[in-house]
Amino acid sequence: FSHPTNRIKKNRVSHRNLAIIIQGPIIKKSNFTLETVNFYSKIYPGSQIILSSWKDDQDFIKKKIKPNKDIHILLNDLPKYKGEFNINLQSISTVNAIKHAKKLKCKYVLKSRSDTRINFKNAPDYLINLLKFYKINKNLKTKQSRRIISTNFTLRYRLYGISDLILFGTINDIFNYFNIITTPQKEKDFVHNEKRKFFKDKNYYVEGRFCPERYFFCNYFTEQNIKLNWTVKDYITKISQNFIIVNNEKLEIYWKKSNRADNHFANIPAPEKDSLEFNFEEWLKLFFKYKKIKSL
């Protein structure tokens, strides 16, 4: 999947206060990750593009791409424990990139993975305007300054777990969301505590195994001393109050691991509940309900 970047007209709007983080291992096939860096530098001029990967790939990266005032390369040391489903790898590469973005005085962070690409040329304006329009309730007992935007990679009926493939928000909010390091014992305790929760619902589910998305989500609120009630109502309330779910097609997202337009985790045309994705329209209905808006 390749983009003719030499034919892209530059966007007139410059977002020097935006850091676009591409974290994860380098996807070398078709030079996908490095081409994404070059693509973003042309379609989002002025934004700070931060590629945060691993020292194992430093020779390959140095041959393929040259840093400049808008393109930054971070090569991290691999941790001793990568975590279940590589959660520590995601955390370390993201947090280190955000620390670098803070030095660049960025205000917003668009966090993405090295195997994804956003093609919508007005994505920064669209995402920033969403944060400005759907303001967070000032009366909430939270340190969160703005909502966090996820995509409809989020599974509709998975309890307490938005998708972390692509997230957008203020720099401190996204930093706090990913600022964790797990150990085998922490992961074991987390799963054990989940199983102790009395949860019974015909639609919503908890996998019964360690889930990075849920760990990030739960830790984010726990660190703010905000209690999770482990009910559907509580989860829906937090989705309505603290987040926004946008549609992948709006951002024109391409994911290297999927050739589907939607319901990327389903193996059949009509997905079952455990692979059905959340979309903006469903989120908006929940937002209306939370705000007690009957109609526009």
Keywords:
296 residues, alpha/beta, 5-stranded mixed sheet, two-stranded antiparallel sheet, 15% strand, disordered N terminus
- The Cα radius of gyration reads 19 Å
**Rounded mean pLDDT score:** 87
Unreliable runs, pLDDT <50, ≥5 residues? 1-12, 264-271
- Largest sheet at a glance? 5 strands, mixed
Please write the string of helix (H) and strand (E) elements. EHEHEHEEHEEHHHHEHEH
Report on the structure:
The protein has 296 residues and is α/β, with parallel strands linked by helices. 36% of the residues lie in helices and 15% in strands. It is built from ten helices and nine strands. The protein has helices spanning 32-43, 58-64, 87-103, 123-133, 171-178, 184-196, 212-222, 232-242, 248-251, 280-291; strands at 18-23, 48-54, 71-76, 108-113, 116-118, 148-151, 167-170, 243-246, 253-255. The strands form three sheets. It has a five-stranded mixed β-sheet, with helices on both faces. α2 (58-64) links the parallel β2 and β3. α3 runs antiparallel to α5 and α8 packs across α10. The longest helix has 17 residues, at 87-103. The radius of gyration is 19 Å and the shape is globular. The termini are far apart.
Outline the secondary-structure elements.
Layout: E1 18-23, H1 32-43, E2 48-54, H2 58-64, E3 71-76, H3 87-103, E4 108-113, E5 116-118, H4 123-133, E6 148-151, E7 167-170, H5 171-178, H6 184-196, H7 212-222, H8 232-242, E8 243-246, H9 248-251, E9 253-255, H10 280-291
Parallel strand pairs: 1-2, 1-4, 2-3, 6-8
Antiparallel strand pairs: 4-7, 5-9
Helix pairs in contact: 3-5, 8-10
